[in-house]
Each structure stands twice: as C-alpha cells, then as structure tokens.
Amino acid sequence: MKAVFITGHGGNEVVTVGERPMPERRRGDVLVRMKAATLNRVDLYMRDSGAGITHQLPQTMGLDGAGIVEEVDADEPLLTPGQPVVLHPGLSCGRCEFCLRGQGVLCTSVRYLGEHRDGTLAEFVSLPASNVFPKPKALDWAEAAAIGVNHLTAWRMLFTRAQLQPWETVLIFGVGGGVSLAALQLVKMAGATAIVTSRDDDKLQRALALGADHAVNGAQEDIARRVLALTGGRGVDVVFENVGAAVWSSAMKSLVRGGRLVTCGATTGDQPGADLRRLFIRQLQVMGSTLGNLSEFRDLLQVCERGLIRPVIDRRYGLDDAHAALDRLESGAQFGKVAIEIA
Ligand SMILES: [Zn+2]
C-alpha cells in the first residue's frame, strides 16, 4: 500500500512516499481504508528528531485521520464494513492504574499513531476498535480527520482542565495554528469571550471573522497591557497557550487573580521564568494537558454531529504531495489545518 514514511531523522529528504506492507489486522482491531489525515507539529518533530519517543524506522507518519471500515471482527457490536469513521490516535493499555480510572490519556504505556507506531498517512491503518468512532456526517473527510488531535486537545484543555464557564474570558495565543483555532471555535461555542493574539494582521482579521471578540498583534503591542485594557484592568480568566517561552511572561501577567493557565506546547522553548511570586500572591493555576480521553472524544463528536464545530482547513494535498504539505506546515503561514487527502 502507498504511505508517507520516515526512514531517518532530518529534513524532508528522510520522508518517502512509497510502498509499505499492508498492516495485519489482529482480532479486536479494525482495518480502516484511509480517506484523509491532517498534519500536526509532532509530524515535524518525528521527522526531524523523534528524540524521547520509542519508535522503529521506517515508520509511517500521521496522527489523526478519517476513513472507511474495510474489515472488522464479525462479532464487533458497533462497527460494520463500509462505515465512515474517525480515529482517536492514542492507544492506551486499558490495565494500568490510570486506564482503570478512565484516564487513558495518562496511560503509562500509551502509544500514539505516527509517534510510537505506524500512523495515518497511508492507504490503510489497523487499530483497536475502541479508537474508532462513527464519523460526524456534517464534516467532510479532512474536517473529520482534523478533530482527532487539535479539537480533542483544545476540548480537554478548556472544558476538562480549565473548566471554562460561559461568562469568562479566554486569551488564546498564536491564533492560526490548528490547536489555537480549535480553541477559538470551542470558546465561542461555549459562549465565552475570546481574545486572540498573532504577529500577523491577516490571521487576526480572519480570527475576528470567525468570531473572536478582540485581536492583539503581539509584534506591535504589549500583549498583557492590551489585555488588561480590554478587560477593565481585571485580566482574563483562562489563558490558552502552546507557544511557550516567548509568551510565558505575557501570559502570566494577563491572568486575573485566581486565573488558570493551560498549556499543551512549547514551540518557542520549554524553560521560561516561573514568575513564582505572581503565581502564589495572585493564586494562579498552571495546568498541562495533552490530547484527550476516549470519552472526551465522544463528547466532541456529538457537537460536531450537530454541526456546531467545523474545523478550518488551510490547504489540501494528495499523498504524493506530502513534502509540499510538510513545507506548508513548517512555514507557519497556514491558517488552520494542512490536510492530506488519501483516496
Ligand atoms: Zn494504561
């Protein structure tokens, strides 16, 4: 079968579009004929380094995806051949302390598609039935694929971790990236107020068109000062962050007393000053988050089924154009998800 896979670590020259063996479907697994996937920053990380993530080369890239059930156990109760499905990329063990508490997202031996094992940039993927969900009809293939990482991550950050309420205000850093745009959509769905930042006026205009209440250009303005002005000197209830060191100080200064900062990334560095005095005097909370549980994915799929959320697709590429798609993601020029359409 055709797939996009890495044969080493480095730039795009280690990425090959070519033949890989068909995955073997084991009992309990579903063989999915892939229709679309979208790229995530971790795809660039796996291509360039993969350090700290146990994996074997060659490895097929891609975390999220949507497709059609090709083959499934005859006694599988929920899925049938020919059914459109969307994939949850985290394969948890089901038996560790955390899995037993229903927190598969904390599983001590979790394996992610495209990180610890072959991923979704392929004509076929085989994975446990528990990770395969009916595709929301309101979304096309690429849109459905897009919710599996970014929207799921943003959902857990906002609703499970930060416990966002409709009357609150959220500051979202770096709008334009997939997870930040997902956050904007979810914040507005929840009825809360969204302030977004970017260094690109065009992206800010597009975010305003998508419902952002205020836009701050971080290249031209002091973000914390502007946020305080926009909130009557109060600060925001929640900061949604995945930029890291470059914005950490602004993020901490933008929070109201007792406010919550939730982060899922550190693109610009992972060792900012902690600002401990501000943390304890103003009684702030700093929370980390990664992806989401199967139950959170199910909840997200319900709102997608009702048409409340439609991911923004930046550009669509074919499998053969994977190099150009990776370049597009790496450029940072995208607004929304870079999608790969497979069939
Ligand atoms: Zn586990």
Can you put this structure into words, describing what you see?
Helix content is 29%, strand content 26%. With 343 residues, it is an alpha/beta fold. Strands 3, 5, 6, 9, 10, 17 and 18 form a seven-stranded mixed β-sheet that branches. Strands 13-12-11-14-15-16 form a six-stranded parallel β-sheet, sandwiched between helices. The protein is globular, with a radius of gyration of 20 Å. The chain binds zinc ion. Zinc ion (ZN) binds at residues 92-93, 95-96, 98-99, 107-109.
Present the secondary structure layout.
Layout: E1 2-6, E2 15-19, E3 29-38, H1 41-48, E4 59-60, E5 66-71, E6 84-87, E7 90-91, H2 97-100, E8 111-112, E9 124-128, E10 132-134, H3 141-161, E11 169-172, H4 178-189, E12 193-198, H5 201-209, E13 214-217, H6 223-230, E14 236-241, H7 245-253, E15 255-263, H8 276-281, E16 285-288, H9 294-305, E17 313-318, H10 322-331, E18 337-341
Parallel strand pairs: 11-12, 11-14, 12-13, 14-15, 15-16, 17-18
Antiparallel strand pairs: 1-2, 1-4, 3-5, 3-9, 3-18, 5-6, 6-10, 7-8
Helix pairs in contact: 3-4, 3-9
Bound molecules: zinc ion.
Zinc ion (ZN) binds at residues 92-93, 95-96, 98-99, 107-109.
